[in-house]
Amino acid sequence: MKAGFVALVGRPNVGKSTLLNHLVGQKISITSRRPQTTRHRICGIKTTEEGQIVFVDTPGIHASQKRAMNRYLNRAAVSALLDVDLIIWIIDRPNWLREDDLVLERIKSAGVPVVLVINKVDRLEDKAVLLPFLEEAAARHSFADLVPVSALKGVNLDVLERKIIALLPEGEPIFPEDQITDKPERFFAAEVIREKLLRSLSQEVPHALTVEIEQFKIEGGLTRINAVIWVEREGQKAIIIGHGGEVLKKVGERARHELEHLLDSKVYLELWVKVKKGWSDDERALHSLGYVE
Ligand SMILES: Nc1nc2c(ncn2[C@@H]2O[C@H](COP(=O)(O)OP(=O)(O)O)[C@@H](O)[C@H]2O)c(=O)[nH]1
Ligand SMILES: [Mg+2]
User: Fold this and answer.
1) How far is the CA of 249 from the centre of ligand 1 (A)?
2) Dist CA 153 CA 57 (whole Å)
3) 239 within 8 A of 205, measured Cβ to Cβ
4) Per the record, which residues fall in region G5 (predicted)?
5) Domain count, the chain
């Protein structure tokens, strides 16, 4: 049997969480078109006859270190590289940006094998650009492998999975066979609400919001969830609530629907929007809102 930890790293928005969900075959990590959708280190566990792969999803590694939240995200991403057996480095089509050099630097210092995954090939008009790019990439680092995939359409993921298994050390499963994540249900409740918010809002509001679960109570076939959506300013609160409460109502309905499916229970969901000035640039506020390594 093979077993080990595999970190999924890369710039924001390249498709790390989408890849995790498709490899595990379940939605573990929320996704959206916005950078910083993933704010926590989340494990997704896949157990097969050959072994167990523990994927570690991470926030994207990015250059800006200015705000406390950005520093937290970078720390969480970089610390996930410690103690893994393999790194999957994901890039968005054959585009090598300056920030990818930064990622490569971090990856090199981890000292474990790296598989370079070129994602979103479904959006590649000219597939002929792949081959020269793979050669160029191979010259920058001695990768254990280079694999083009489409995480969203499920292209070449079986090949990727076989290569990952082959690169893992021998070992007994780390988690019980039926476990698929390391996070508790109330964590997912907050994440699902945040995903629906990210997907409903434009402008700069997504970066300014976080969701805190105040109550998560199972009463027979009903789960009672009370959540607070924290924002930084009154204006953002007004945007989230929307005209006549329209936006918040839609977010609540979508979140409740998905949570009922996820928890296999009826869900009673209550959402409140509150203002905590400057929480995302305040180390203590971040800590109390669950941004703890
Ligand atoms: N067309 C296409 N879109 C993708 C693919 N993988 C991810 N995406 C999209 O890219 C966006 C960012 O994905 P996400 O997984 O949240 O990226 P992350 O920030 O790296 O975790 C989402 O809108 C995904 O639907 C892919 O293979 N093809
Ligand atoms: Mg993500």
Assistant:
1) 26
2) 19
3) yes
4) 149-151
5) 2
pLDDT reported for residue 49: 93
Question: Sheet containing 222-231: which strands, arranged edge to edge?
Answer: 210-219, 222-231, 266-275
Closest by Cα among 216, 239, 220, 217 to 228 = 216
Instruction: Check whether residue 133 and residue 48 sit in a common domain.
Output: yes
d(CA 152, ligand 2 centre) in Å: 13
Residue ranges making up the domain that contains 159: 2-167
Does some domain include residue 108?
yes
pLDDT tens for residues 58-99? Answer: 998 887 778 899 999 988 888 888 889 999 999 999 888 888
**Which ligand has the shortest distance to the CA of 103?**
1
Residue 147 predicted with pLDDT over 80:
yes
Residue 178 lies in a domain: no
Nearest residue by C-alpha to atom 16 in ligand 1: 31
